[in-house]
Specification:
This protein has three helices and two strands. By secondary structure, it is mainly alpha-helical. Helix 2 runs antiparallel to helix 3. InterPro entries: DUF6540.
């Protein structure tokens, strides 16, 4: 794993993504906290605009994993889902979103062992 960095996608349509799974509504946010880009074209930037992006930029992205085979513990081994929970916590702290959002996000997380690289012999894909 190479670690993560902040990236803001504007005018992005997740429904058009090849890796799209689902959208889960976690609450509502006042439109005053959203900065709308000029124009309709997709853009990608590492510079935050508006309250949401600025808040997101203040949550440190997960660093390079020290042991990518270890289960996610949220301390020494973090992935994007841990970052998402931290971001939602910041939104709650700022009263941008209701506290129940955290429970909803937690309920839709993968288990800590999800995606752990290697499986014991005979338990991976193609095992009889």
């Amino acid at each position: 794993m190479a670690g993560y960095q902040h990236e803001f996608k504007r005018n992005y349509n997740p429904f058009m993504s090849k890796t799209f799974h689902a959208v889960v509504q976690i609450g509502q946010i006042d439109k005053s906290h959203i900065a709308y880009p000029q124009g309709d074209n997709f853009e990608k930037s590492d510079t935050p605009i508006g309250d949401l992006e600025v808040t997101a930029s203040r949550v440190r992205p997960p660093p390079i994993s020290q042991n990518f085979l270890a289960p996610v513990d949220g301390v020494t081994n973090k992935l994007c889902q841990e970052w998402t929970v931290e971001f939602v916590d910041k939104l709650i702290e700022k009263n941008y979103i209701d506290a129940q959002a955290r429970e909803i996000v937690q309920a839709h997380r993968d288990p800590p062992s999800h995606g752990v690289g290697l499986q014991p012999v005979g338990q991976g894909r193609g095992a009889a």
